[in-house]
Design goal:
It is a single chain. By secondary structure, the protein is an alpha/beta fold. It has helices at 59-73, 81-91, 96-114, 118-121, 141-154, 168-181, 197-205, 224-233, 247-256, 266-269, 272-284, 298-310, 322-325, 356-362, and strands at residues 3-21, 24-38, 43-48, 129-131, 134-136, 158-162, 186-190, 212-216, 238-240, 261-264, 288-291, 341-343. The chain has 2 domains: 3-115 and 355-362, Enolase-like, domain 1, CATH 3.30.390.10; 121-343, Enolase-like C-terminal domain (TIM Barrel), CATH 3.20.20. The protein has 14 helices and 12 strands. It has a 7-stranded parallel beta sheet.
């Protein structure tokens, strides 16, 4: 089975309501699809969801990079994922988001051609359900408490609370949520690189009374040595996210003992295969892993849930909850996440079908 086409497509989907975070208010998500065509008449689809401030590439960057890589893939064996990754690496270095979209599409096409789900292609699932992690943005404390109670009522067992720097309201937000939910939820906090180093240890210590499961990425992504210093000064487990890019960055984190937990994303790591490699490196160092990204569509969500299902080192509380924030999607049957669980499908490929009409409505390029 040979690749006959690689088509990047930009779509824009509005959110159900504005979402407030460290990098501003999000009202719509610009995502990129990669359609892989083959001479067997089988199509595969990949999807990544770049977010300003979080990802290094914009949707336009991903689109143009996929277009630039496409000639190196036309005519290649669609079943040979390693060769396809090598071919893309030969065209551009880095650009993980673009490579992830194409590799996801190839995984989908290969699994469909074999009549198996992608999780079987990756060695088989260890669990049939993946538990999700709710989110609470940079909202006033009372609103945060009300949102947390809503997540509990829906069945979610954990939630992430966004904090913006050393703002005292962040502590009040965490305190209000813990008071509202008691011991019914595990709570995480995420700074998204916004905490000044000089304030980091002291501010995080103010959060210690609230029984947090982890504190995520307090500093800028390149400051791994400083992450290690913060970790030594606090009692809450520290998770690195933006600092975790390729194997070299993860090995640096491990050597410096800069994190108790690391976070991976199929988009950030450059595809399912490379994400699993990162999980295996972390597991070898006895570091647990969280997977997921905040905004996104059904296809990318299923891809990350699939990695969570096949990797024992990935802990509960998958953060791939994008479809809950989206007012629309581009698949015929958008995935239902309302009860805090993703059920892993045994249908061929990723088990979803692109809806041509929905795609046409959302398409921007």
């Amino acid at each position: 089975m040979r690749i006959t086409g690689v088509e990047p497509i930009i779509v824009e989907v509005p959110t159900r309501e504005p979402v407030s975070g460290v990098h501003g208010v999000t009202r719509a998500q610009r995502s990129v699809l990669a359609r892989i065509a083959t001479d067997a008449g089988i199509e595969g689809w990949g999807n990544v969801d770049p977010s300003p401030g979080y990802t290094l590439m914009s949707a336009d960057d991903v689109h143009s990079t996929i277009a630039a890589m496409a000639p190196a893939l036309i005519g290649a064996d669609a079943m040979n994922l390693n060769a396809a990754l090598a071919a893309m690496d030969g065209v551009v270095s880095g650009c993980h988001e673009a490579k992830a979209a194409v590799e996801m599409g190839l995984c989908d096409a290969k699994a469909r051609s074999l009549g198996i789900p992608v999780h079987s292609l990756l060695g088989g699932r260890l669990k049939s359900e993946v538990l999700l992690n709710a989110w609470i943005g940079t909202v006033p404390p009372q609103q945060a408490a009300m949102e947390a109670l809503g997540w509990v009522e829906r069945g979610f067992l954990s939630a992430k609370i966004k904090l913006d720097g050393a703002d005292p309201e962040g502590v009040r937000r965490v305190a209000a949520v813990r008071a509202a939910v008691g011991g019914r939820m595990a709570l995480r906090v995420d700074f998204n690189e916004s905490l000044p180093m000089e304030d980091a240890v002291g501010f995080i210590r103010q959060l210690e009374p609230y029984d947090l499961a982890l504190v995520e990425q307090p500093l800028e992504r390149h400051r791994i040595a400083d992450l290690a210093e913060i970790r030594r000064g606090i009692r809450i487990p520290l998770m690195a996210d933006e600092s975790v890019v390729g194997p070299a960055s993860l090995i640096d984190i491990i050597r410096r003992e800069a994190a108790d937990i690391v976070k991976v994303k199929v988009m950030k790591q450059g595809g399912l295969l490379r994400t699993i490699e990162m999980v295996q490196i972390a597991a070898a160092a006895q570091i647990k892993v969280v997977i997921g990204h905040g905004f996104g569509l059904t296809l990318s969500t299923i891809a990350e849930a699939t990695v969570a299902a096949v990797c024992g080192a990935v802990i509960d509380g998958c953060e791939s909850v994008g479809p809950l924030k989206m007012a629309a999607d581009v698949v015929s049957e958008p995935i239902g996440l309302e009860r805090g669980v993703i059920r892993i499908s045994d249908l061929p490929g990723f088990g979803v079908t692109i809806d041509p009409q929905a795609l046409a409505r959302a398409r921007r390029a």
